[in-house]
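Ticket reopened. Same input as before:
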Amino acid sequence: MQTISHAAIEKTYAQAYHEARMILALLSQNNMCLVAAESCTGGLLASFLTSIPGASQHFCGSLVVYRDDSKSQWLGVEKKLLDDPMITSVSSQVTETLALEALGRTPEASLAFAVTGHLGPNAPANQLGIVHTTVVFKQSNECDSLTEQLLVPCEPSNPFQTRVMMQHRATLHALEFLRQKIETRFAV
Amino acid sequence: MQTISHAAIEKTYAQAYHEARMILALLSQNNMCLVAAESCTGGLLASFLTSIPGASQHFCGSLVVYRDDSKSQWLGVEKKLLDDPMITSVSSQVTETLALEALGRTPEASLAFAVTGHLGPNAPANQLGIVHTTVVFKQSNECDSLTEQLLVPCEPSNPFQTRVMMQHRATLHALEFLRQKIETRFAV
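Engineering reply: fixed in the latest deploy. New output:
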């Protein structure tokens, strides 16, 4: 059996867990409920949030749309966006659509978060580590949307280790982004 | 910062990763595509599958329905099932519905897997570690559904560690169950 050592991601794991705890505390303080849509993180972001006891009070769940078809079928992303080589599934447009559609399909959610990215192996040239994130806050008549491109640091390793590491790093960066946006919005 | 040591779940993590690899190999061999619906594992099952390079060829994604409302809104689980104290969200009926509905909403999927369970803390009396799993195989005119109740072993620890451990153990058991059911179905 090939074993995957966790020593290499121990620090990232602990930091991501800490971010998840802070996010749930912020959601609790502000009486909010989060919904997520994940592509590249593949459920790992949801797994950190749901590893905190009581998370279901403030976390509706995550739509892990790992294929283009799932993005279209579950969240109504237009095929023309996904098929456009200048846009593709890893883009700010698709990430924003995922967040808005997840929010629209989850009436009890007060904010949505979405993430897409290239975590390798076999990422397009110069695209490895590029991650798009969107946070959308529900408002009375419209939504307030914040989209950013992040760069996840990468390093040479074996391909299996690299993907596991990259998913953990992308999840940590995504959680940090989300936590900062909630903090900023509710700063006194 | 509270840190979460991964040493305690190192072995479970490696085993779950191994199961995920075997499942993707089986799906590839049989040209199948899987969709998941997760409650108690909270995206962790999807994260293991998506940590394998190339997973998107055979894994559509996961609907992480972490609240009762998400189970109803995303996958049409009837409120009367969730609200019935003799059934509740952690039941074979709800797990089977989640799997069938996930399959129905994902045209390219050839099988669906769903999992619900009590992983604590604060599980109902005598319910800690009880997990319900369903695998549904799409057939020409009907679906072939297999549902089982699993018992995830638990041990005393601090409440945070226990939940992280329990989610990893539940994910490992769920992946083993899924792998066995695919192997049995396609055994020569």
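Chain B has one domain: 29-185. The CA atoms of residues 21 and 126 of chain B lie 33 Å apart. Please confirm and we'll close it.
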